[in-house]
Amino acid sequence: MGIKDDAVEVRAQGWRTLAALHGLIETELERALQAESKLSVVEYTVLDALSRQDGWHMRMQQLARASALSPSATTRLVNRLEDRGLLTRILCADDRRGIYTELTASGLRLLEDVRPVHDATLERALDEALAIPELAPLVDALPRLHAPA
């Protein structure tokens, strides 16, 4: 195995570690959100992303990027959330082909009710990950990801 192969293996191991941390967190969040509100992690992510927008709306392709879903999966997700009355779709006034997805008042209320559960569960999962030697360095690095330069 050469130096280049070693570098690839180091990156691959880093990726596997990151995937393990993500899996641990997502499993805990999924369990807590389903129990509290019948929301999946990706549904919560969409409601949260919309709540952070001025006017609480986003184009469908922006929502797909924010939720890391394909366009067709985003459409199915939006359909489910719209059926629950948590968001709605509106036509873009400037571009009739454009569709915005907008958070409803019910969606905002649900998000505000479940956000403390999400945040507490995330904190517990990160604390749990800190106790795992392979994951602790990643957890320690998280606050620096968005720290001012």
Write up this protein.
There is one protein chain. With 149 residues, the chain is mostly helical. The protein contains six helices and three strands; from the N terminus they run H-H-E-H-H-E-E-H-H. It has a three-stranded antiparallel sheet. Strand 2 (87-91) and strand 3 form a beta hairpin. The longest helix has 35 residues, at 3-37. It is globular and about 55 Å long. The model has no long low-confidence stretch (mean pLDDT 90).
What descriptive keywords fit this protein?
mainly alpha, 6 helices, 3 strands, 149 residues
List the helices and strands and how they pair.
Elements lengths: L2 H35 L3 H11 L5 E3 H8 L3 H13 L3 E5 L7 E5 L1 H26 L5 H6 L8
Antiparallel strand pairs: 1-3, 2-3
Helix pairs in contact: 1-5, 3-4
Gyration radius (Cα, Å) is 18 Å
What is the helix fraction of residues, given as a range?
Answer: 55-70%
Put simply, the count of helices is: 6
Tertiary shape:
globular
Structural class: mainly alpha
The description of the largest β-sheet is:
3 strands, antiparallel
| Strand element count | 3
Element order: H for helix, E for strand = HHEHHEEHH
Walk across the major sheet and give the strand order.
Answer: 1-3-2
Q: What is the overall pLDDT average?
A: 90
Q: Approximately how much beta-strand content do the residues carry?
A: 5-15%
- Contiguous runs where pLDDT drops below 50 for at least 5 residues: none
Distance between the termini: 38 Å
